[in-house]
Specification:
Blueprint (H helix, E strand, L loop, with lengths): L6 E16 L2 E14 L4 E15 L2 E10 L1
Antiparallel strand pairs: 1-2, 2-3, 3-4
Length: 70
């Protein structure tokens, strides 16, 4: 779990919503929700979309990059 001096992760949920594969490229889409507790005791909720990009090299999928939208 993610914890730092300034916040503590209380809840994290991620759901895959789709995947597109074209030749040696794959794009995976997710929605996420998080809840963190800040140093002042306030709960912060966030949600957004994640996108992962993978490329197939030598018959193995390799992580190329990602994007986040809040």
């Amino acid at each position: 779990a993610y914890d730092s001096k300034n916040s503590k992760l209380l809840f994290y949920d991620i759901k895959k919503t789709g995947i597109v594969v074209k030749n040696d490229l794959a794009i995976v889409y997710y929605y996420y929700i998080t809840e963190t507790l800040d140093a002042g005791g306030k709960v912060k909720k966030e949600k957004g979309k994640l996108t992962d990009i993978l490329v197939k090299e030598n018959n193995k999928w390799k992580y190329l990059g990602w994007s986040e939208t809040k």
